[in-house]
Amino acid sequence: MKVSTVLNGIFYEVTLPEGLTIEQLEEAMKTVTDVFDVINDGLTKRGMPPLSRLIRVNQYSGMVSDLITRALDKLSDFKRTRNTEYPDLKNPRTNVGIEIKATTSKQPWTTVGHNVTSGWFLVFEYDISETGSPSFRRVWIGELTEEDFVWRGRRPTSKRTPTASVKKKSWELKMKKLFERAESDLSAGQFNTRSR
Length: 196
What we know:
Elements: E1 2-4, E2 9-11, H1 22-45, H2 57-75, E3 79-80, E4 89-90, E5 97-103, E6 119-128, E7 134-144, E8 149-153, E9 163-166, H3 168-174, E10 176-181
Parallel strand pairs: 5-6
Antiparallel strand pairs: 1-2, 2-10, 3-4, 4-5, 6-7, 7-10, 8-9
């Protein structure tokens, strides 16, 4: 277990794919928060609302995901693939990939995707702080297979791309909690360190 004062939370010891460390994840998450802080500071100085009030929720989540991907590309052995390619990151030495997802949902297994394939998934749950920047709530990691997904489809009149989500049972069996934000200040020692 690793305490992160910078993120006000705990990283748990779980299996990570080779070439990725908790320290790299912590730095990537801090980098993303810093980038949003800079953007929101610039918007505020120009009399505009924070980015979270200017763009749609799915665009914001996409931006969090893209920035995490970029940060891990710089910090870890994993390298970014092309924008629409699956997975988002791949370790060129081991050929192992990681798909990155970001969500405000407190039911992260419902996070939708357009790719149903086997591999590692790294899911970042976040809230949006008062300043408009992401505040990471939990991070999950695990290896999923195609059988762990269910297609949600679309309404006959919809023009949106069909999406899939993870079956709740599969999520509970295969996804491990990697990070959890403290409910209060860590320095007060009031954090529940139980992992699932």
